[in-house]
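Appendix B. Raw example, untouched.
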Amino acid sequence: MMARRRTFSEQTGNAIGFTLAWMRDRSKSVELTSPLVSEIQEIESDVYEHVRKSSVSGFSDVAQRTELYRNLSERLSRNLSLGNELGAKVETQIIPKLSRLPAEVSSKREKFDHVEQVLRLVKDIRGVVEGFEKLKVLNDDEKDPVALVETLCNCEDISETHMRSGILCCEILAKEASWWREEIRLTLIRAWKRNFCVTEEVSELGPFVCVKVGRPFESEVRDFITALNKAVLLDDCINWLASQTCTHLLNETMNLRRKVTERSDTMFSVRCITGDQEEEENGCNFVAALSPVVEALEFLFSNLLCEETAGVEIMQLFSSQVAPEFRRKVKDELLCAAVPSDLASLVQFTKLMEDFSELEDRLVKIGFYKDTISENAATRVEELYASKKRDEILGAGRELTKQRLRNTVTVMNAAGENMQVSENIVKIVDLLESTAQLAVDAAGKQPLVSATAAQTIRDVIEVYVTLTPVFHSEEFSSLPFLAAVVRNDAWFMSESLISAELFEAADLVEKLRNFGCDVFEAQLKSQCGSMRDNLRYDGGFCSFAEDPKRKGAELGLKRTITQMKGMHAVWSNCLPWKTYVAALGFLLDTAVEEILRQALTCEDIASEAANNYSSLLRSTFIARLPALFSTAERTVDNVHDVVTRLHALEEFVFVLDAHLPEIKTRWDAGRGPLARAFAAQEVKFLVRALFQNTDSRAKILAAIS
C-alpha cells in the first residue's frame, strides 16, 4: 500500500478495477458489457497469440517485440486519457450534483487501496517468453500442462523470474490448447505458496507473477497493463455512477412517497411528503416536478460526453442502466398517480402531457432516451387513464373477494324469491355496473378506455372465481350456510350480468353458475356422506333386525332428523325457496335409499324388530318431514312431491306390519301401490325375511311376479 493516499480522480483514473485476466477468472460474478472492454479483450488475445507463437519461433527479435508494445500502446492511448478525464469529472463536477452521498464513498476509497495491491501483479511478457524457452530445453517432449508446471517448480537451476513466468506461460498455453483443467489451477497455487511464500489473499486472485520490468519495455508494458485495468475500471466506474444517480438524484428528486392530489386552484398539484412533514407545493404539477431531474441529467450527460467516440459509448452504457428505471418511476410514481379520476378532466391533463413530451424530447436529444414514444399526448393520456382505472377496479374487486362471507343481506332473485348473499358480492356487482357505465360513456371519444373497461369486467369475474376458493374454501367446505351463500353470490352476479345487459361478459354467466353449483354440490355430498354414516351406526337396521335391543337403528334415525333440522335452520331463509326444497328433498331421498338398502340386505327380520322399526320410522322420521318443508312464509303441501322415495318408505313400513294376505292385496297382481314402489324380486326378498317358510308364503311368492 502506498504511503500517500491518492486523490479520488487519480484512483478513478488509475486504480478502479482489476486486471482483465483476473476479471476473466471472476467472470461468473462480474459481467463486462462495455465496448471498451471488448476491445481490450481482443488486444489481450493478440498478445496471447504472440506469446504462443514465440514459444515455437523463439521470438527473439527485440525490434519485433518493441513494435508489438508500441502498437498496443497506441490502440490503448485513447482509453488511458478517457479514464483520467472521466475520473477528474466524477471527482469535481458530477459527484457534487448527487445530493447527500452516503458513507459508501469512504468504503469505496478503501477498496481502491486494495486495488493497488492487485496492480502490482503485472505480467512480464518478456519473462514469460524466456521462461518458456528455458522450460522447453528442460522438457521438450512433455505435453501435459500439469507435468510442465511440476517440472518447472521442481527444477533448481531455473531463476525465480523464469520459474514464475514459465508458470504463467503454462497457464496461457493450456487455455489456448483447451487443456485447462481445475488441477492446473490448484497446482499453480500450490507452487506459488511453496516456492515464493505467496500470501493466501494474493494467491486466491490467480497464478499471476509479480516481477520487475526491465528496459527497454518498461513504459510500454506499464501502459499496456494500465490500459487493461482501465477498461475494467471504466465499466466499474460507470456502474457505480449509474447506481449513485438512481439512488440519490432520481429517488430524492421524484420522491418515492409523492402523492398527487386535485385542488380547485392548482389542478394536478403534487404533494411531497418527507418523513412526518407534509408540504404542499402550490401550483406544482408533475411536469414542474420533473423538470429539475431533466436538467440534472442534461448536466450529467454534458460532462460525460467528450469529443471522442468513446464518450458516446460511455454515455450509452450509463443510460442503458439508468433510463429504464427512470421511465418506470415516471410512469408509476408520477404519470399514473397524476391522471385524474374522471373523464371530464382528461382534456386539461392532455395539455400537461404535451409539456411532458417536450421534456422527453430533451432527453432524446442528449442521448438519455434512445427514442421517444411515438403516440401523441391524447393517446398516451387515454392509455394511462385506462391502465389506472383497470388497476383500481381490479384491486377493489380483489379486496372485496378476499373479505369474509359472514355478513349477508337479503336480495331478490330473477324469479322473485328472497335469498341471502354476502355484502361483498353486492359491492362487486355495483363495481361491475359502474365499470360498464364507464365503457358506455367512453365509447365515443375514448375507445381504448371503453375496451379496457369491458375487458376489466371479465377480469373481475375471473378474479372472483379464482380467488374465492383460495381464501374461503375451508369455510364453505365445513359450514353449510356459507356454501349456500357462495352459491347465491355466484347466481346473483350472473343474474346481474343479464339484467344490466353486460354483454361483454355474457359468456361468463354459465361459468359463474357452474362455480356456485359446484360449491353447493360439494356441500350436499358431504351432508349425504354424514347422513349415511349416521344410519349405519352400530350396524344400522341389519343389527336391529337380529337383536331388537340394539339401539343403532334408532340413534341413526334420530341423528338424521337432527341433521335435517340443522339444514332447515341454516338454508330455509338463505337459499331461494325452490332451491332449498330441492336440496332438502335430495338429502331425504338419500336417507330413504340408505334405509331401504339396509332392509333389502337382511335375510331374517324378527317379528318384534319389524314392529318396533315400523313404529320408529313413523314417529321419528316420516311424521317430522312436513315440518322440514315449512317456514313462516312458505310451505310444501305434499311432501311426496319433493321426497320422491317417501312413497317407497311408506310401503316398506306397511310390509313390516302387514300379514301375507294384506301384502298380496297391496301387490294387486303388479298393479298396486306396493308394485309401484318395489320390484317383484325386492318384495319377495322382504317376504322371505319376514315370514317363515310355509305353504301360505309359497303361494304369495308365486303370486308376486
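End of appendix B.
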